[in-house]
Amino acid sequence: MGAGISRLAWRNLWRNRRRTLIMLAAVAVGVWAMVFMSAMMRGMVDEMVRSGLEQLPGMVQIHQRAYRDDPSVVNSMPSPEGTLQAALAEPPVTAWAARVRVPAMVASARASRGLTLLGVDPAAERALGSVPPTISEGRFLEDEHDRGVVLGQRLVERLESDLGKRVVIMSQDPQNDVADRGVRVVGIYKARLPGDEERFAYAGRAALQELLQVPGQVSEVAVMATDYRRPQALVEHLARAAGPQLEVLPWTELDPFLSSMLDLQDGFSLVFMVVVFLALSFGLVNTLAMAVFERIREIGLMQALGMRPGLILRQVLLESLYLLLLGLAVGNGAAWLTIKPLESGIELSSVARGMEMFAMGATLYPALYWRDMVLATVVVLGLGVLASLIPAWRAARLDPIRALNSH
Amino acid sequence: MNITGLLAWRNLWRHSRRTWLTVGAMVFCNTLLVFLIAIQLGSYRMMIDNTLSAFTGHLQVQHLGYLEEQKMRQTVPEAAALASRLAEEPHVEATAARAVTFALASSEQRSFGIQLTGVQPALETQVSSYPGLVSRGRYLQQGDDAAIVLGSILARNLKVAPGDEVTLLGSGYDGSVAAGVATVVGIIDSGLAEVDRGVAQAPLAWFQQVFALGDRAHSVVLRLDDVNRAPMLVPQIQASLPVGESLVALDWDQLQPGLREAIRSDMVSAWFMYGVLIVLVALSVLNTQLMSVLERTREFGVMLALGLRPQRLGRLVLLETIFLGLIGLLLGVALGALVVLYFDAYGFSYPGMAEAAARFNLPPRIYPQVSLLSLFLGPLTVFLGALLAAVYPALRLLRLQPVAAMRAV
């Protein structure tokens, strides 16, 4: 009997081919839009998180407790050693770097600018992935004793300086005296977000420690790990190793904007899917109601011949289920086919400066997650069957005598 | 109502449940579109207003090339006089001259590199939102000399409060070392990290003296009676500038190119979503109208046999769709307007929005824009989409053969 019902439902679906195809198109367009839009949003947020983590940098940072409130060289910490160093050598840590990070002035003969000066160990930064992506002229720092500086392209233009020229860097030592030194521009970098080129300059870590008279001291330790979505366990592990003097924080707390974007996006995907489904549901209910209406006499006859209402209900639901499954297959397939070719990146340079406001580069990489396809499928099937209950219920409750006598 | 209209109206109610379901799809979509578009336009307007009043103003006069290079020497001569002259131009509500440089600010305990702006205190109040955001102390006043207001995060980093002194060290207009000491008179707390970390303002006259600028400044900022007028006003302002000084008038779009691009990219994704909703509604209408045409094939055959012209049948179906669409339009706009008016009174917010909003200079609550455009743009598009969807069923009627049609089951 079960097989008979499903065959009946399938054949019924194609009795009015045109209507079924239109509804199928509607379901497919809806599902395609759900998955396509989610992939775009994922790509956007992934990109934001990626560049956010690059800029912080790291998924977890360790500071002296007062540093975040008062980012001065006074509040620096010793370079990791002992248990902390051992903890940083274990998985899930993939890379870490200790850096001096101080507010500073850079002055050329023509102009001066305030920025954040990073004293880095180039090898560690490279492992962390937080060196500038492009060195347009010269070279990056050779090692932490390198006495040159690497400046951003835009900063060099604003300072009217150039590769090989000297600039003066000024910052503050722990005694609050101005420490300054003339240094040579050894490299010029380009950042993914052009605004960063004016915000950050790189110097050798040991050279900067010497200038500021803080040997062995650093401002922050940036830690990269395998999965950015779950930093909490790592934070607890590192906090135990670091001791009470130091503060260990995940990126979600260091940059609340990023984590709120991530949460917003999950919520938004679901809301968008439900909204699209609701727009779809009117047509779905309508189609099924029409199909039932046309077959009133037929349903009455089946009931008169002894078919139980439950089977009629099941038959209408099956018809709807087939329609939804076909629509899902076509919609998901179309989404996969349209997103795959775009995964190499969509060029958005015409709105690059706008994308920078979203903390994004000028290329959008859509990201198709299985999770989103599954979510769209669950939403459409779950709510779809729920919506089909109304016409199916009505069909099952028909009075056979009246149904047989309707026009 | 003529006979075709009457017929169309009555046909609509032959299957009242089907009609209401189709109308329901339209009303749902229209209400949603009215709400989304009003919120969208409202947030764009707030984003533009907040960004411009915090940073650039509606229009600026600068030295040619200053926008890109921001060099100390690219100045506007006799800036204060030019500002008061430009204030007389039509549609210009207020003007103020500003000078900008970078300096090392040192308090007793800390030093930071900052961007220092010299402003005309009395005039700045009319073009910028900062004076209203002072949380401690006061804003600069006319007659202040060596005074400075700082952003709240900057003040915290420098460990200063109103009454403390800050030493500023930079380079002057002539390339010499410039140094000055100013007393903190107020702290600005805007809630926007970028502003609170960066802003530092001192009186223009003192600024010009310390940095050896004479009567020069770097820009004259204009606030207009209507922000939308800025592009039209550029030529007029440009024409009134002194010749031979290489000065240019720039509107906010040139000063803040990211703003319009951010709005444009946001619009693309929003219209993708609207487009999907509209297509779904159109498909729903197509389905309904096609069914209603197919089930009446015999009836139409009879009408044709009685001498009705096929064009008239096509008009009938289109008219039915117009009625259908109008009901959806009116109900949707009415319902949408109710929703929008509610949020106009109480503001719109959702959990987690505040952090994201602050990034775009938006307050934590967004107020929708209530206008004819925001109310009707979406529903009218849906209406047109529905009409377009009915074209196919209507065209089918033109090919109908009376005899074959009357025999159809």
TrEMBL record, chain A:
Residues 20-239 form the MacB-like periplasmic core domain. It is a multi-pass membrane protein. Its main location: membrane. InterPro entries: ABC3_permease_C, Lipoprotein-release_system, MacB_PCD. The chain crosses the membrane at residues 21-41, 268-293, 316-339, 373-393. GO terms for cellular component: plasma membrane protein complex. Keywords: Cell membrane, Membrane, Transmembrane, Transmembrane helix. It is found in: Cell membrane. It comes from the Bacteria. Belongs to the ABC-4 integral membrane protein family. LolC/E subfamily. This is ABC transporter permease.
TrEMBL record, chain B:
This is ABC transporter permease. It is a multi-pass membrane protein. Belongs to the ABC-4 integral membrane protein family. LolC/E subfamily. Residues 19-239 form the MacB-like periplasmic core domain. Keywords: Cell membrane, Membrane, Transmembrane, Transmembrane helix. It is found in: Cell membrane. InterPro entries: ABC3_permease_C, Lipoprotein-release_system, MacB_PCD. It comes from Parahaliea maris. It holds the Pfam family MacB_PCD. GO terms for cellular component: plasma membrane protein complex. Its main location: membrane. The chain crosses the membrane at residues 20-41, 271-295, 316-343, 370-392. It comes from the Bacteria. Residues 272-402 form the ABC3 transporter permease C-terminal domain. GO terms for biological process: lipoprotein localization to outer membrane.
